[in-house]
Write a structure and sequence with these properties.
This protein is mainly β and 147 residues long. It contains no helices and 13 strands. The chain has strands at 2-3, 17-18, 25-31, 34-42, 47-51, 60-62, 79-81, 86-89, 96-101, 107-112, 120-122, 128-132, 135-139. The strands form four sheets. The chain has a four-stranded antiparallel beta sheet, with no helix packed on it. The radius of gyration is 16 Å and the shape is globular. It starts with a strand and ends in an 8-residue tail after the last strand.
Length: 147
């Protein structure tokens, strides 16, 4: 990933991060209460956390939620949970839901959901919503970021 020199940054842009993914970026999300931390996802098997104060290379590359060696053909959407302490995601061709620590990039938990989770959405303290084909599934999280 390279940051463009200020002389070639497009008009109106203050930072450009290039090369974070091997394919087009299709998901961006700000970390709650952290205007400098950004999550991106693509059709490649990595979720990337960027610290825009130091955009030269990713803060963390989150791996393991996608089966190895595949190109992801559908758009999946990871999301921040626990006030931004973690990222939760599913992925195509997998029934796993993965939870990653945003401070370290480590996998906190990975378990079988019994369905193929796609987009994820969570309001802090509320249930986790996951798309599953044409359905939406509501899950009650058991992870406590304070423990």
């Amino acid at each position: 990933m390279a940051v463009r020199a200020p002389s070639v940054v497009p008009a109106g842009a203050s930072v450009v991060v290039e090369g974070a993914h091997g394919t087009a970026v299709n998901v961006l999300q700000w970390r709650p209460a952290s205007p400098h931390l950004l999550l991106s996802a693509s059709h490649d098997p990595a979720i990337v956390l960027h610290d825009l104060r130091s955009p030269g290379q990713p803060l963390h590359r989150l791996l393991g939620h996608a089966p190895p060696g595949i190109r992801i053909s559908s758009i999946y959407q990871p999301c921040f949970v626990g006030g931004g302490a973690a990222v939760v995601t599913g992925c195509e061709r997998s029934t796993l839901i993965s939870l990653y620590c945003t401070a370290t990039g480590a996998t906190i938990s990975r378990g079988d959901a019994g369905f193929n989770p796609g987009a994820a959405c969570c309001n802090d303290g509320g249930p986790l919503l996951c798309s599953a084909g044409r359905a939406v599934r509501l899950l009650r999280p058991t992870w406590d970021p304070e423990v």
